[in-house]
Structures are given as structure tokens and as C-alpha cells.
Amino acid sequence: SDVYKRQEEQVLFPWILAPAPAAAARAIRAMQLEHEDTVTLLHTLHGAAVRAFAGSPSDPQVATAQRALAQFERWLCEHLHLEDHLLFARALESVRG
User: Fold this and answer.
1) Could you give the C-alpha distances from 18 to 6, 14, 22, 28, 79, in angstroms and in order?
2) At residue 75, what are phi and psi to the nearest 5 degrees?
């Protein structure tokens, strides 16, 4: 979302670039914890959607909703993976020296 993107640009990225490594590491850890919460919520949403859609597999609106949810899940997982395994890892390497 735009709010999340603004938070990253205005809060996280400056902390990563800050001269204080401890502040950057704390900011990254906070984001990692948020990502863990996000994955938990995504699993909950996915399970609820599967149960809700189970009764109407041939309904075109259900199929559209399933595709949209699957696209969202892919996008979110790619985003989290990119940050957790590339951005955060590289930022922590750079502040460690």
C-alpha cells in the first residue's frame, strides 16, 4: 500500500543509511517482526478464503476472487522475500562493516 511504501521510504531507508548501525539494526529487526506477523495474517486469510470459497467453486465471482487473492499472495511473498533476504541482509552486512 502507499502508506507502507511511505513508511519504508521515510523511516526504514533513512535508518538503514544512518551512521548509527544500532539504529539501523533495530529498524530492520522491527520490520522483520512485522513481516512475521504479516505472514501469519496471510495464512489466516488464505485459510478463511479456502473455507469461504469451498461451497461455490464454479461461481465466476469466486474464481475472480481466488485469482486476485493468489496474485496478492504472490506479490506480498515476493516483496517480503526481497526485503528479508536481500535488502535487510545487505543493509546489516554494510553496518557490520
Assistant:
1) 17, 6, 9, 12, 23
2) -60, -45
